[in-house]
Amino acid sequence: MLALVRDLFFVARIRETARLAGVPLRLARSPDEIAAALAERPRFALVDLTGGFEYEPLFSALVAAGIPVLGFTTHALARQTQPWHARCERVVTKETLTADLPALLRQGVEERRGSPAALPSVGGSGGRPEPPSPMTAEEFVRQLDAANQALLSRLAPEDTLKPEVQGDLTVVNLLKVALKNEIEATEIAARWLVTVDDVDVKLALARQVGDEAKHYRMIAERLRGLGVDVRGFDPLAKGYGPLFQYLDTLPTTVERVAAGQFTREAIAVVKNRQFIEFCEAAGDRETAALYRDVIEPDERYHHELGRTLLLRLASTPAAQEAAARAARRTLELADELQQKALATAGIHHAPGC
Ligand SMILES: [Fe+2]
Ligand SMILES: [Fe+2]
Measured between alpha carbons, how far is 141 from 145 in angstroms, rounded to an integer? Predict the structure, then answer.
């Protein structure tokens, strides 16, 4: 199968699902990649109709190659993508595709006609997609978790980086980056704590504020132990980072919980695990133990708090869409920030929140 999909979050999910379903997958975005993929005669093409591709030449090439198309769109963009619906053998909404990805990847454009479990589809007739069947909060959280994990694996480098004796890549420098992450995690949770009415959410955020502030103090103490006096150090001297600024714009509780707790804390768990290995490679057992015994279990707990709250809050299609969008943007930002840190400072082991 050939997939023409722009959205990174969705690409990761499709890749993982195809792997589990045993469906050979080829991803393509540029015209050259598409031409090369068509030469391999895929069984069908999955086309993101909202992906901003050059659709006219794309559909011409697919028709010329005799490749059937399973298109997908969203309710919000269905009117805009409608001109292309008739060029597809089958069109489904993104929600349907997400909910039934394994079956759709296996089936391609063949509908299970007459089956009571037939998937909602608008066929190739150019109509509006039918409403997707609603997903339960449990299903949604399970899918979000799987999608997050697939993308998180991109944040994990192949090998443990070698600590540098001379240079920027040292435990001390990474701990200073950690201070900034911890103060930002403290503050965003505190900002949300005072603006939410839901008592369970308030208490979860209060616990997080306390933990993140404790992490800050423990890391500062550890830096002192390593001979670095951080009393005059202001981790926010250069302002808040892009991830903090993004989180601060999120208006609803479900988005905040999905992005700030469920996703950001999952990132922290991955990064802290890398950092523990890094500390061990540097021979710094004490810092490794601080992360392994105290900080990492706390971050894991914050992630689980996020899961518990999402199971209650992500109960409608609108809430699920908002939560998924916020989680995806959080991961994209983390990925971008990591690429930037790697390019500018050679850092990709900075511990998380
Ligand atoms: Fe945390
Ligand atoms: Fe923390």
Answer: 6
